[in-house]
Amino acid sequence: MRADDLRNNLSEVERRVTEACKRAGRDRSEVTLIAVSKTKPVEDLQTIYDTGVRDFGENKVQELTGKIPEMPADIDWHLIGHLQRNKVKYIVDKVKLIHSVDSYRLAEEINIQAKKHGVIVPILIEVNAANEATKFGVKLEEAKQLCEEISHLDGIHIEGLMTIAPNVVVSEENRQIFHKIKDLSVDIANENIDNVDMNILSMGMTNDFEVAIEEGATHVRVGTAIFGERNYNI
Ligand SMILES: *Cc1c(COP(=O)(O)O)cnc(C)c1O
After folding, report:
1. What's the pTM?
2. H or E element: which one contains 201?
3. Does any ligand 1 atom lie closer than 6 A to the CB of residue 224?
4. pLDDT tens digits, one per residue of 194-215
5. What is the H or E stretch that residue 122 is in?
6. CA dist., res. 147 & res. 214, Å (int)
7. Could you please report the per-residue DSSP string of 44-72?
8. What separation in Å is there between the alpha carbon of 40 and the centre of ligand 1?
9. pLDDT in tens, 210-224
10. Mapping DSSP to helix (H, G, I), strand (E, B) and coil, where does residue 26 land?
11. Which atom of ligand 1 is nearest the CA belonging to 59?
12. Distances (CA, A) of 137 to 26, 62, 65, 115, 174
């Protein structure tokens, strides 16, 4: 995409994020905009980087590890897609945050690799808030227990929750879902589990990020509205 168009897209998204923060009585600094750059060429990422964005999200390990050496070193990379255990070793020490932990077995592998690399890995628990068969993530009712189990792994630090809401046309339809996830995070925070924080809520994408911000998102993951439609056939 042309650099001008990318910059215009970004400033429009930025304007909408700022407006949503205002409506919710929140400070703009409470919300991190993650530019979701999957399938997009590094030239496009560089254009967005040059405007000052430092948080980028990718959903595939191979694509992520390919892009990291091509881009400036001060980027905070977010792994937002489903993570297979055999790929954990390639990214544990390279990402700012893993958004997609939904099983103890995956957490165990992250813990093993964290120790090998001498790091503590910040993660989010992915919750399948609408209980969709096609989506990864634990059920709402299972999230607290998974947090408790993972809290004993000292190579991992739980920072909060992530959800991918249903793909709806009218973003209002997802308000309930975001509200539920926020409630759940307050619930878990009140348990005061050692080694578990609930400071991050990663929710909201191109179709619904404003509603997510109004309901308490601290991180929104926006791809299409910044980089344009994705073409998976190339
Ligand atoms: C692709 C993706 C996004 C961004 O989606 P858009 O609708 O293009 O903004 C956000 N989160 C996850 C987990 C994704 O895979």
Report:
1. 0.97
2. strand 196-202
3. yes
4. 999 999 999 999 999 999 999 9
5. strand 121-127
6. 25
7. HHHHHHHTT--EEEES-HHHHHHHGGGS-
8. 13
9. 999 999 999 999 999
10. coil
11. 15
12. 28, 21, 23, 25, 17
